[in-house]
Amino acid sequence: MRRLTSVGPKGRGDAKTDRVEVSPARAGVIFTVLVLVSAGFVWKLVDLQVSPDDDLLNNVGSYLREEKIDASRGNVVDRQGRLLAFSVPRPSIVGDPRGLANADTPADVDDVVAQLATVLDTDPEVMAARLRSDKSFVYLERQVEPEVGEAVAALGLPGIWILAEQHREHPNGPCSALSVVGRVDTEQVGISGLEKKYDEQLEGSPGRALRQTQLGGAVQIPDGYHVVEPHAPGDELRLSIDRNIQYEAEQLLARALLETEGSTAIAIVSSPRTGEIYAMASAVRDADTGEVGCSNANLGAVWAYEPGSTMKGITFAGVFENDAWGVDEMVEVPATVYVARESGVDSHAYHDYRLAHGASVENLPYTILGHSSNTGTVLLAQALGADALQQTFENFGFGRATALAFPGESTGILDDLDSHSLLLSNTAIGQSIAVTPLQLIQAYNTLANGGVRVAPKLVLADDDVANPTHTDVRVVSRHSAQAVMEMLRGVVSSGTGRRAALPGFLVAGKTGTAWQPCGDVSGYLCSEEDEEEERHYTASFVGIVENDQGPVLSAIVVVDDPQGENYTGGAVAAPVFAELAGYSVRQLHLAPFGEQAVAAQRIRSEPAIASAAIEPPSTSEALQ
Predict the structure, then answer these.
(1) pTM of the model
(2) What is the per-residue pLDDT across 332-368, written as a single tens digit (0 to 9) for each?
(3) How far apart are CA 196 and CA 477, in angstroms?
(4) What are the tens digits of pLDDT across the range 585-603?
(5) CA 130, CA 96: separation in Å to the nearest integer?
(6) What CA–CA distance (Å, rounded) separates 212 from 226?
(7) Which sign does the torsion angle of CA 422, 426, 431, 433 carry?
(8) Residue 296: pLDDT band by 50, 70, 90 thresholds?
(9) Contact 428, 422 (CB under 8 A)
(10) How far apart are CA 388 and CA 86, in angstroms?
(11) Taking the CB of residue 209, how many other CB atoms lie within 10 A of it?
């Protein structure tokens, strides 16, 4: 190394500066070392990306976790905004098996499980297997009660922590329209009812967050939680259901089952003008315990049954619409009508029990429907013909699901009526056909609407959102619908449905008492030896309530398999209809005839009180 001397400019004096001179060889060595070190760092970074070290990743990953921020599922509310279903945070117990195994002082899994078993319901062997797995996250028990989460947190176990998740709550347990609203799974995904149908609208969008933690999972770093993507809550779903009317319907159905020892009871309350459903309730009796409670399934939409005489109103609409018989034209109605079976070997006899017991004969369509004459209805159906009756039933919506499109909704059964005359005759009086209560109340709403079918509705929203396939369809003329409605008023004023009358209002409706199929038989009716033992009945009433404004309310009540002598629609279902309709008109502020308004204060449903024993039916009411 040489030291160099520099001399300053002339006249300024001498200035000397020492400068170290580096040889080219040494500079090359230094540069080479720097290049090699840099290359080593680059290689290590690439190696970590391509072939990551499991131990290193485990240690690093245990300090930084990405968490999903659950979106709050939208509320389901009734028409007044009262909650039917909502979501609340619930603690879930989770663990970090890798963290337990790789901690500086690894925790004993058996000891951890033993302590958790004192507060959790999960099988200890299941928890132990999960905590010994090669995972960094496992669920031990999900969506527990808050006090359970607090108890687990108080244990202070390493590798165990609490994760908040959304849990669906229902105010009245298995009732409060839960069978209509539906259920969600633990991931808050709709799996039944309207929760399933409107899952996308209700679910919302989850968010993401980063959380810095220590090895055991507890947060140790201040401000160690950062929201990467915020969540968006789900939309609210407002139903046409009125929670009070729904509750009253559930109470009345439960009482009806207790009094009649029936197996199933169903009720639907709706607006005949808009199709909005105010209540859709169903109750069942446990076959083993005899206890009565709300059904898990929405039986009003998914259960099909033979309706019996409630179908006669629709048969008469077809008769008048097709000019098969005049409204004021006399009918010669015998006490018994014989119709050949499919084989043609023998015949089936239809009876008019009222005529058979000496009742006076006034053979007009009005009295045939009013007293629910089987023989008269069969004669008119034969005059109408199979093709026209089939088309009538299809136009009213039978044989296919309604526009409501409720998940699992039944289409019912409507066979080809042209196959033989016995099927035509049976179907005309509501046998050999299966319908849902929802289909039947839609049909009677059509009559109340002057022959125009309006789709049933459970969601209060624009039609293009809630009912994308909804259109109003004229089914029969206003003249035909009004003729049937006048006859249905007579059913309640002087016929089989007198117990459905409602003071201050006009009620038009029809009773039904149907024989349900018994066993695996080849014909449409049971053999004589099986009739008494295997056959059971279904009692029903469907009706329209009218005031000065016209038809303002409709309801159907069905009680399946009532026991004892009181099993007819007029004796079992009609009184329940009267109570339910009476409560509903007060709850909806529907004024009686001659009054312009009712009290604005809403009423509260009270628990149903057992009524007096149901009176036995008169002879004219039997089998109607």
Answers:
(1) 0.80
(2) 888 888 888 766 566 788 888 777 666 555 578 888 9
(3) 38
(4) 999 999 998 876 554 444 4
(5) 9
(6) 9
(7) positive
(8) very high
(9) no
(10) 49
(11) 16
